Amino acid sequence: MTGLYFVALPAIAALILNLILIPVILKLSHTYGWYDGNDHRKIHTEDTPRIGGLGIIVSFLVASLAGLTLFRVPGPMQTSGSLTSIVRELGPVYAGLLIIFCIGIIDDFKNLRAIVKLIGQITAGTVVSFSAFRITGLAVPGIGSISFGILGYPLTVLWIVGLVNAMNFIDGMDGLAGSTSLVAAVFLSVIAFSLGNQQVGMLALALSGSLLGFLVFNAPPAKIFMGDSGSTSIGFLLAVLPLFGSDGIDGGMGLVPTVTLLLIPVIDTAAAILRRLRKGVPIYSPDREHLHHKLLDLGLGTWKILLVVCGGGMLAGLAALIWVQGPPLPGIAAVVTVWIAGTLSFLYLHKIRHAKPSV
């Protein structure tokens, strides 16, 4: 029972479970006042529950663990269907996820200091770096794999911490982080299946199902937000899951397509860091200059912004797929093209936004 049909069952289970969980979370949130606060950076104006991430992560954990336990899914990880083998292979991933989620859920209620969150994120990244989900090298088409050696450990931590915060930064509009993550998770599953890694493909599909269930309630106008517990946990999973065989062997997709798959949040975060360094303010300082803010200031509505961002995510996903499956030259051309197009688009938006009168 290892065909695509059975591998897809955890995704269906995650979808159904989250469709059940979110209404319960909504009721509890309205009863106890678990709302997201309003400030000048927020687009919403009404009190909205903020812990949708609880439903996303619980449904993902239940569905993925059930899938790995019930079905002997083929792939490079030595999971025999027993809980012991699953813990041996994926224990660091689940442990890191729980660390990130717990920090996020506490922050949703208590507003933790940035340094506390950073320490927790580094801890989670360090735990994962000592597993098979680690940056080990760089696969170059036509050349082979370049090993990073011991540098793979700090690079893994840096990548995880970076993407955890990238998804948190992009979570500023109804449906944006959820839809962006859904596109990335679907392409990740397609790439993993194309490489014969049904285990990572199943995990990515389970995340996709969970996200789809959440988006039913988070699509504009949102009834619930995912909160930091959701955005950071999703960022963690999207950072970690592609890393199995990051040198492009043993069913791994390679480092270049991994980063390309998440091009939009990566560029948005890089731009935010450079912007804040240039202004001489802390990197964690919030502002209103992220991608969705710039598109809003251009007059685009919420749904149009979602189409633009998801369309860009799909192009990035296709480029990553071409890199993995196509001949070397088309793969390189596709990846270079989307990176140039993405970078130029961000520069153009920055230029025309700052050329307009202040809004």
List keywords for this structure.
single chain; 359 residues; mainly alpha; two-stranded antiparallel ribbon; two-stranded antiparallel sheet; 4 strands; 3% strand
Describe this structure in words.
It is a single chain. The chain is mainly α and about 350 residues long. About 70% of the residues lie in helices and about 5% in strands. It contains 13 helices and 4 strands. The protein has helices spanning about 5-30, 50-70, 85-110, 115-130, 150-170, 175-195, 200-220, 225-240, 255-260, 265-280, 290-295, 300-325, 330-355, and strands spanning about 35, 50, 135-140, 145. A two-stranded antiparallel ribbon has the order 1-2. Helix 1 packs parallel to helix 7, helix 11 crosses helix 13 and helix 12 (about 300-325) runs antiparallel to helix 13. The protein is globular. The protein starts with a helix and ends with a helix.
